[in-house]
Amino acid sequence: MARLRPLVLVHYHELGLKRGNRPLFLRHLARNLRRAASDLGSVSLRQVSGRVLLELDGHANPEGVRDRVRRVCGVASVSLASRVASTVDAMKAAIECQIEGRSFASFRISARRAFKTYPMTSVELNRELGRFVVERTAARVDLHHPELEIHVEVMPAETFVYADRVEGPGGLPVGSSGTVAALLSGGIDSPVAAWRMMKRGCRVLFVHFHSVPYLPPTSQAKARALVERLTQWQYDSQLVLVPFGEIQREVVLTVPPPARVIVYRRLMVRIAEALARRHGAAALTTGESLGQVASQTLSNIARIDEAAGLPILRPLIGMDKLEITAEARRLDTFEISIEPDADCCTLFVPKHPATRMSEHEVDAAESRLEVPRLVKEGCDGASVETFAFPAGVSVAPADP
């Protein structure tokens, strides 16, 4: 029989709980879905009762669109589905297309009705369609651990049938929660933290501190590679490169060694905050995890926060290194992060940094510095680079 051309069916869950604000979130989701597939052919979107339908022209690659869409934050799952009339015979024909060429020993039919006036209940549909599959294959029904699960979603005017559901990241669409500035090192943690903010609907501005010419520009290359990878989740990114070597040198000349790491971090926060305000970001984000290094003890985190006028969000604060590393592997940032480099965190760092600095000790250390001048120098020396995914595609911002 003729194979039905698949379309891409997107399910979301958290967005469905937004009630009065749901249209705003759905506009952001629709914009991001279009952007994700913008170079893969003509794609039109339609909202269908808690779902988003992507209809493809004859030139679009359905598998390619699905693989792009699975990375869109806000998507719970995505499937290549057949659309047929809401009759049992049409459902059977679609199921026959789904099972054609497959080898499976067990299966399950999962039918759902979006409207309760359909003449058959979900249980009756499961039995009727399951009997159809049994008649055409040697497979048995297994409701608990099937090798193949066939989904049938019955709408008033149409029915969607699909077998391979791919999980998405969930969360909220990028752009729906505002903008944050992420302090991006070349390490494992900060890219994961930035992605977690994207998953909560934030657009991320990346801020990277480097120590050129005191160190080679390898950390900048890693930052660019990480931003390029993460741009696949938010489609447009800006990377702000901040020269920090001269500022560190001045700190070394005036601040006692145990206090230097906290002073560095407080200066970074002040510079990042000024840049964030310049670019419209409402908060800062770091990859700090409680107790992981000297600057991330509870008391030192408090000292760092005292330097900030914007909120500092720490999405990894309760995670351990193994959990963070596992997530970095899933994001494909881990291999970039472990490449050898020399970043500003390795320059002028004392052997024994203080782990529990008091507010008085920090104030005494910074009193020797012209902090406003150093912050201005960092901001004035910063350069901005832009990234886009897919490359060369630009989309206007979503309506508020």
The CATH homologous superfamily of the largest domain is named HUPs
Main beta sheet strand tally, sense and closure: 9 strands, mixed
Poorly predicted residue ranges:
394-400
Output the structural class.
alpha/beta
Any idea of the CATH class of the largest domain? Alpha Beta
- Whole-number total of structural domains: 2
**Shape, principal axes of CA atoms:** elongated
Helix content: 25-40%
Strand content: 15-25%
CATH topology of the largest domain: Rossmann fold
Summarize the structure.
This protein is α/β, with parallel strands linked by helices and 400 residues long. The protein has 13 helices and 15 strands. Strand 7 and strand 8 (159-162) form a beta hairpin.
Features of this protein?
400 residues, alpha/beta, Rossmann fold, nine-stranded mixed β-sheet, six-stranded mixed β-sheet, 13 helices, 20% strand
What do you see in this structure?
- The structure is a single chain.
- The chain has 400 residues and is of the alpha/beta class.
- The protein has two domains: 7-167, VC0802-like, CATH 3.30.2130.30; 179-388, 3-Layer(aba) Sandwich (Rossmann fold), CATH 3.40.50.
- Helices cover 37% and strands 20% of the residues.
- It has 13 helices and 15 strands.
- Strands 1, 2, 3, 4, 5, 6, 7, 8 and 9 form a nine-stranded mixed β-sheet that branches. A six-stranded mixed β-sheet has the order 14-13-10-11-12-15, sandwiched between helices.
- The protein is elongated, with a radius of gyration of 26 Å.
- The chain starts with 6 loop residues before the first strand and ends in a 12-residue tail after the last strand.
